[in-house]
Amino acid sequence: MSKMLKLITIFLTITTISAQVPVKDGWRTVSSPWDAARFREVMTRVLPKAYTNPAIRSGRIAGGELAYLGQFPYYAFLYNVDSYGDTYVCGASIISHNWLLTAGHCLDEIVRTSVYVGMIDRVNGPAIWTLDVTPANFIIHEDYFGIINDIALVRLVRAIPLSPYVTNVALPRRSDSSVVLEGKIGTVCGFGKIDDVKSQPSQFLRFINQDIVANSVCAKLYGSVNVKSTNLCMNGTGGRSTCSGDSGGPLVTEITAGQKTLVGVVSFGAELGCTLGYPLVFTRVTSYLDWIEANTGIVIYS
């Protein structure tokens, strides 16, 4: 079979599957859960009081690049509806064919969510697979509070059909807890806002590569009470950053050469802006391996 014929066959297969998964009405008017009134006090508490670096503006999500189909096969898009009827965008990581890992604040007061995988255009779609999920299948960390223990699981009652375009990401081993991540390049993707001016998340899936930095860098700005050992920090300079709508999404890096490992879950950043150079804060996955194993049955290797 020629290379061109193979590409056509793959395209037709994806189109046939994903044509059955249309996007929902109203996706043009969604926001981040951090924009909800109930989270304003939390973000006010972690708001940096001063920052001396010059402002750097960017026309795209913190200098992000467009992703292509299959580049992040472990990314899941969450379309959430809360108890007030408001809709929010979040991300999640596929950690097995029946489980997603996301941020606790993404599921707080959410009454239903629609999971979409294999999608790089949130307005027009299509997606390869979708499933509506109710709170009965949410597991938010029992000690979650705002930005503390900001981690949650979504149980999928119908298994995701894994393929080269949709698959799970590797979880860390327990021994990886002792690996120094500072200085490693991390990759994060999502549909977050493309800059500090736009009111809506990005139509297209984007990604950035930035270096992971010591927690002390974040603690200087957000305070040690907000940045704990269960967090992980990433450089936000150069206008390259996560933004509203990226919550819950995956941060991966290579702990073992050649293998992307999930090390962080997008938690929070500076309320002042996404492109101003502030560091980014994630939930550190290695701090919750026992919790993940206990709640999902996924074996975490030593």
UniProtKB/TrEMBL annotation:
Belongs to the peptidase S1 family. CLIP subfamily. GO terms for biological process: proteolysis. This is Peptidase S1 domain-containing protein. One of its GO terms (molecular function) is serine-type endopeptidase activity. Pfam families: Trypsin. InterPro entries: Peptidase_S1_PA, Peptidase_S1_PA_chymotrypsin, Peptidase_S1A, Ser/Thr_Proteases_Immune/Dev, Trypsin_dom, TRYPSIN_HIS, TRYPSIN_SER. Residues 61-297 form the Peptidase S1 domain. Residues 1-19 form the signal peptide. PANTHER family: TRYPTASE-RELATED. Keywords: Disulfide bond, Glycoprotein, Hydrolase, Protease, Serine protease, Signal.
